[in-house]
C-alpha cells in the first residue's frame, strides 16, 4: 500500500507543548490526523515492511535531486522516530511483532507499507 503522505518523525514533547506548541509538534499532529484514517484499515498481520520516502530539500539542485532519488537517507531524523509516528496512529499496536524498515530519499514524500 502506498500512502501519499510525507513521513514526519515523532518529536520529543514536553508539558509546555500542551499550551505553547512548537512548529515540529504542530507538523506531527497534522501528520497524525491525516494518517490515522489510513492506518485504521490495516488488518492485523504477522508483520509489516515499511519504507519511508523522505522528500528532498527544495534547496538542492536538480542534478543533486536526480542523483539522490531512491538512495538511502542517512541523516536525521532517525528511523525509529518515523516508526514511532506511524505506530502512534494505530488504534492498537499490540498485534504487530515484526517490522522491517528503511528510509530513502525521494522527489515526493510517501510511506510504503506491505505485509511481510
Q: Number of helix segments?
A: 3
CATH fold-level name:
60s Ribosomal Protein L30, Chain: A
Order of helices and strands: EHEHHEE
Output the radius of gyration.
15 Å
Under the CATH scheme, which architecture would be assigned? 2-Layer Sandwich
Q: Determine the fraction of residues in helical runs and give it as a percent range.
A: 25-40%
The rough form would be described as: globular
The unreliable regions are none
Distance between the termini: 12 Å
Q: Number of domains in the coordinates? A: 1
What is the number of E strands? 4
Residue fraction in strands: 15-25%
Describe this structure in words.
A four-stranded mixed beta sheet has the order 1-4-2-3, with helices on one face. The protein has one domain (2-115): 60s Ribosomal Protein L30, Chain: A. The longest helix has 17 residues, at 23-39. The chain has helices at 23-39, 62-68, 79-87; strands at residues 2-3, 47-55, 98-106, 110-115. The chain has 116 residues and is an alpha+beta fold.
Key terms for this structure?
116 residues; 4-stranded mixed sheet; 4 strands; alpha+beta; globular; 60s Ribosomal Protein L30, Chain: A
Summed up:
This protein has 116 residues and is of the alpha+beta class.
Question: What is the fold's blueprint, element by element?
Answer:
Layout: E1 2-3, H1 23-39, E2 47-55, H2 62-68, H3 79-87, E3 98-106, E4 110-115
Parallel strand pairs: 2-3
Antiparallel strand pairs: 1-4, 2-4
Amino acid at each position: 500500500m502506498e500512502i501519499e503522505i510525507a513521513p514526519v518523525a515523532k518529536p520529543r514533547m514536553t508539558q509546555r507543548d500542551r499550551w505553547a506548541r512548537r512548529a515540529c509538534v504542530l507538523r506531527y499532529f497534522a501528520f497524525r490526523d491525516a494518517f490515522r484514517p489510513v492506518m485504521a484499515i490495516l488488518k492485523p498481520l504477522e508483520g509489516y515492511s515499511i519504507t519511508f520516502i523522505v522528500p528532498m530539500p527544495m534547496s538542492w539542485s536538480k542534478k543533486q535531486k536526480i542523483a539522490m532519488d531512491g538512495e538511502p537517507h542517512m541523516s536525521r531524523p532517525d528511523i525509529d522516530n518515523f516508526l514511532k509516528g506511524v505506530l502512534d496512529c494505530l488504534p492498537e499496536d499490540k498485534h504487530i511483532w515484526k517490522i522491517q524498515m528503511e528510509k530513502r530519499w525521494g522527489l515526493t514524500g510517501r510511506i510504503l507499507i506491505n505485509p511481510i
